[in-house]
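Severity: low
Component: inverse-folding endpoint
Summary: output formatting inconsistent between runs
Steps to reproduce: submit the following structure tokens with default settings.
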């Protein structure tokens, strides 16, 4: 399916559809409104939401003829009255701000000119244990402790180079937890923060057998409720013939467990993303991800750019749940088999995590759009399926959720501008609607984006809401923060009406 969106003179849209193969994901990105714009010209770009690639007008016409396309609309290339916004500008076009109470005011209060210093290294006391947000206190059955600290919600994210990511650094790794055996003998404590050993084939070993899921010190979360792949997120059979120099990988189905010849995908805690995937793709355009189980039954690292398993997101984004029941939001295992199984569990606002800390929001992993390039060359963003309240992760975060989750949200950071793009879009595979509303709030520049009463709207601040049947996108200023607010409330502020 095709979506068309417009690139402004200075922005490459950050929320690009993932290059998924078994279903079609669409993140709807729109040009960012700059104060006092002067309209110059109209530019329309067609993007294939399955591959993430630009499509010519001729191919777009053919796709329209086959009813596989949707036209979101045309947008304009803009300049400000003071001149065209420069991509090389080191400052955001509006002062970035911390988030005001999201639904009390549609525009946040400005910050002072000097932002608080960012935290470069999470401490053991501040960083959440790896498992995701708990649903323990909401009456939803969950067997894993899920707590997430609020302390990272006000961090200003560091600029990340638009070039190839640097080698993952120790300070970017989740706080180390020491795992011990049943005897509690400290001499057996495991630490995988040291450089991994190297197999005789030259690939680094994780130091674990394929039958051992990586311990919490890696920042991983075991998905124990998955019948076919648990605790792994994805199990792809690439056979023992695989090596990192292959130009393509012939997948021969899935694996029943993490066995020799399999790529074993895993999940990271909320706010962090997986770093291990091979440098080549499937011969049929499949994405492939995870650790490789070698012939000796040992787990090998597959991505030479990282010597850790999880990477903190480039954007400062969270989910805030203002209702009385837990909400399960599930990310696709990508690269991997693309199942919707990686959870971000949003506790009710004011609820308590299993650690005893009060929840203020669940971190959303928000990568640079160059973090992973799809087999078709498309840039990617994180992609989440949103479920109705009260559905625990055991029922929500499973492969079948793409048939039942009413809406999809997306998050990504443009590598050139470091503007964060957040989107809300319908799940075309179902006619169901959420029984609550979703707003994107925070340091929004340009149009606002929301889902109210089962419909999508955007607002340019004139007091009117414009319907957007195919979803909408909001831009968050460089260095700012954004929040997906889940609520029963229907208004952002007085004067806004659908």
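Observed output (run 2 of 3):
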């Amino acid at each position: 399916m095709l979506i068309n969106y417009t690139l402004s003179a200075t922005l490459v849209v950050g929320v690009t559809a993932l290059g998924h193969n078994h279903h079609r994901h669409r993140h709807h990105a729109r040009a960012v409104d700059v104060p006092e714009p002067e309209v110059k010209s109209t530019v329309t770009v067609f993007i294939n939401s399955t591959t993430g690639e630009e499509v010519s007008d001729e191919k777009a016409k053919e796709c329209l003829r086959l009813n596989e396309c949707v036209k979101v609309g045309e947008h304009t290339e803009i300049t400000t009255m003071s001149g065209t916004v420069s991509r090389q500008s080191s400052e955001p076009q509006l002062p970035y701000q911390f988030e005001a109470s999201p639904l009390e005011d549609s525009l946040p209060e400005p910050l002072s000119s000097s932002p608080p210093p960012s935290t470069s290294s999470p401490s053991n006391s501040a960083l959440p244990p790896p498992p995701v947000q708990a649903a323990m206190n909401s009456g939803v059955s969950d067997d894993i402790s899920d707590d997430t600290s609020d302390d990272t919600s006000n961090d200003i994210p560091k600029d990340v180079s638009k070039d190839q990511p640097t080698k993952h650094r120790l300070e970017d790794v989740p706080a180390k937890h020491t795992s011990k055996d049943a005897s509690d003998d400290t001499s057996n404590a495991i630490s995988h923060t040291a450089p991994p050993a190297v197999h005789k084939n030259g690939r680094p070993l994780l130091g674990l057998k394929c039958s051992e899921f990586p311990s919490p010190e890696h920042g991983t979360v075991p998905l124990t409720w998955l019948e076919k792949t648990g605790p792994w997120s994805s199990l792809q059979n690439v056979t023992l013939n695989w090596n990192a120099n292959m130009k393509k990988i012939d997948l021969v189905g899935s694996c029943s467990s993490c066995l020799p010849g399999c790529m074993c995908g895993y999940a990271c805690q909320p706010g962090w993303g997986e770093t291990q995937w091979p440098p080549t793709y499937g011969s049929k355009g499949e994405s492939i991800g995870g650790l490789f189980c070698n012939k000796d039954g040992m787990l090998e690292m597959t991505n030479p750019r990282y010597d850790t398993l999880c990477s903190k997101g480039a954007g400062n984004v969270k989910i805030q749940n203002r209702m009385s029941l837990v909400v399960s939001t599930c990310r696709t295992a990508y690269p991997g088999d693309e199942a919707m199984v990686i959870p971000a569990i949003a506790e009710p606002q004011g609820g308590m995590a299993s650690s005893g800390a009060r929840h203020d929001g669940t971190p959303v992993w928000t990568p640079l759009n160059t973090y992973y390039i799809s087999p078709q060359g498309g840039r990617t963003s994180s992609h989440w399926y949103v479920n109705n309240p009260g559905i625990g992760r055991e029922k929500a975060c499973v492969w079948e959720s793409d048939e039942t989750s009413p809406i999809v949200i997306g998050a990504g950071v443009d590598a050139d501008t470091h503007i964060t793009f957040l989107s809300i879009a319908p799940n075309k595979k179902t006619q169901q609607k959420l029984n609550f509303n979703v707003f994107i709030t925070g340091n929004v520049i340009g149009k606002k984006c929301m889902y109210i009463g089962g419909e999508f709207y955007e607002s340019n601040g004139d007091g009117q809401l414009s319907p957007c049947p195919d979803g909408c996108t909001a831009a968050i200023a460089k260095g700012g923060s954004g929040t997906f607010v889940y609520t029963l409330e229907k208004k952002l502020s007085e004067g806004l009406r659908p």
